[in-house]
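Weekly puzzle thread! Below is a chain. First person to post its structure in token form gets bragging rights.
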Amino acid sequence: MRMIRAIKQGQWAVLLWPYLLTASIPLDCRDEQGGLSHCPSISQEKLLDRVIQHAELIYRVSEESCSLFEEMFIPFPLQLQRNQAGYPCITKALPIPSSKSEIQQISDKWLLHSVLMLVQSWIEPLVYLQTTLNRYDGVPDMLLNKTKWVSEKLMSLEQGVVVLIKKMLDEEMMTTTYSEQGLFQDDGQPEMLEYVMRDYTLLSCFKKDAHKMEILLKLLKCRQNDMHSCA
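Winning reply:
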């Protein structure tokens, strides 16, 4: 039954994947010299809309990638093991509000900087994930394409958020001081199971953080329209 579900999900993914690629509005802010000269010409409102759309698509594809990886490589007992072991996410140490009450109380400035911290913290881990997936036997092209697409769109999202911060707050780009040393440290030659659980944790944690990015950006959009009715 698990194999049948995986095949059905793969069939639907193949049908929907071209739509995802064509439905997203480009958010590439860099010009030929590498400067961020394209997005500043877009109005603040339209830029925020594009950033939100990118965040929505990134979350949707990350959710599909996580489900596909789980169906292909994670037996149900290991799913339980992961949940019980409580593997920490790499962004756990970031000073980002998590509860609904905390998020509602933070300023627009901190909303944007929180999104930027999350985006920048995941750029390198997603590049790392693409290299580790090549170690798997029979890894589907769909999964490789999805992780590559998300990685590229995340860099575009970073550009959009940086320009949005400059437009809304008149501030320059902020870089995170968070280090992924614990993720990329040399463990010698870990067992394949260790690779699988590490990658599964990465995908699961990124899916959660991608959802948080979307929530924070939509809250910011709501505040721009009506400060008093945002939940």
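Puzzle host: Confirmed. Bonus trivia for everyone else. The chain has one domain: 28-225.
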